[in-house]
Amino acid sequence: MDSPAEAEAAGVAVLGRACYTKSMLGINFIRENQTLVEKSAKAKGYDVNISEIIELDNQRKSILQSVEALRQERNSLTDKMKGGKPAPDLIEQAKIVKSKLAEIEPKLVSAEEELHQKIAKVPNIIYDDVPLGGEEANVEVAKWGENKTSGVDHLDYAISRDWVDFERGAKVAGAKFYYLKNGLALLENALLQFGLKKVQEHGFTFMTVPDMVSSKILEGCGFNPRSDKQSDEYYIEGEDLAMIATAEMPLTGYHMDEIIDEKSLPLCYAGYSACFRKEAGTYGKHTRGLYRVHQFNKLEMYVFCLPEKSKEMHEKIRMIEEEIWQELGIPYHVISNAAGDLGAPAAKKYDIEYWSPADQKYLELTSCSNCTDFQARSLNIRVRREDGTVEVLHTLNGTAMALSRTMIAVIENYAKENGKLTLPEVLRPYFDGATEI
């Protein structure tokens, strides 16, 4: 961008030579689609005032114009004062301009910051086929397997076999932390190896990732809670860092500020990490045992792709997830999440919920989201087309395997009356061919 005007056209705020992307959606998009943005935000349950945002941007533009005019005047005076002793009147004019800039530039910084804070709370727009309403409006779109009528409680079962220790976990780190032992620790490892094999078969590159990210990455991913009470991240005191809630966070930032050639897309990554969550705002939700904890391990799929390919990639990620649960023999159904059950980044999301024989209901197991250009725009991740044009690409994510919940599903569906655990056939190679543990 060679000028402030060009930067403005691209939806970028300019202060001196520094510029930053102002919005996940882009201020120009918001201006041109005010009704759509307001309607989508309301459907998601976010309280945003688009008219106020546009007015703030108008004020920012007005201040920016004044700043640019003063800078041009300053530069002109500087040129006139070159090559000898400047005239007193030029010196006086330069002092006046400098004083005015010193007064107005902080106002521009303040206006940009206020606008940024407002606009960062605007969620992504939803696709037309997303159901409207809250969680109760989620729509079942697929179903597989036979639902059992009874099953063991995974926590009682694991404790009885000395496979998990929440008491010592709490002693060491606090409530909802735990130790895995013996068969359950081995089961977790086997599940990871199986999940990793599956995603690699589908062309995903395996990666380990940092367990912490900066606030820039966190915000760029769009993890904005609907209220302060729902903030889920653990922050590092005295550092601009937070523990990751999912490998999606560092994977999103992997190509920050990069332009990727069209021929290189899609880029498909599978990130393995520990995940840390406060589980704020979960009052009334299922929390038994390993189901909702403060730390767990997860294998996450992530895709960078062309905008016109993101819907196709979303279905591919969902297909991989379904393939995993079918091969494990875990009954499930797939739901299309209603707008009020979507987070800020997702334009559309599927959840896979497994049938819990112990609870006699479906419980969330994995999800996959199409975030369109929401995250990529914020973190300046773009694609260079074959014709040389550059545009923002699309990002998607999907859980290959959240290991804590997967272990619950396996125990509930495969525990035997004699206390043994039958191993799903696909896991037996990781136990030297054993059929049970």
Describe it.
The protein is an alpha+beta fold. The protein folds into 2 domains: 4-119, Helix Hairpins (Orthogonal Bundle), CATH 1.10.287; 135-431, Bira Bifunctional Protein, Domain 2 (BirA Bifunctional Protein, domain 2, 2-Layer Sandwich). Helix content is 39%, strand content 20%. The chain has helices spanning 4-9, 27-32, 34-44, 50-80, 88-119, 154-160, 166-173, 182-201, 215-221, 248-253, 310-328, 374-378, 403-414; strands at residues 12-15, 18-21, 139-144, 164-165, 179-180, 205-208, 212-213, 242-243, 259-261, 267-276, 295-305, 332-336, 348-356, 361-370, 382-384, 390-392, 394-402. The strands form 5 sheets. An 8-stranded mixed sheet has the order 3-12-13-14-17-11-10-6. Strands 9-15-16 form a 3-stranded mixed sheet, with no helix packed on it. Strand 13 (348-356) and strand 14 form a beta hairpin. The longest helix is centred in the N-terminal third of the chain and has 32 residues, at 88-119. The protein is elongated. Mean pLDDT is 90; it is low at 1-22.
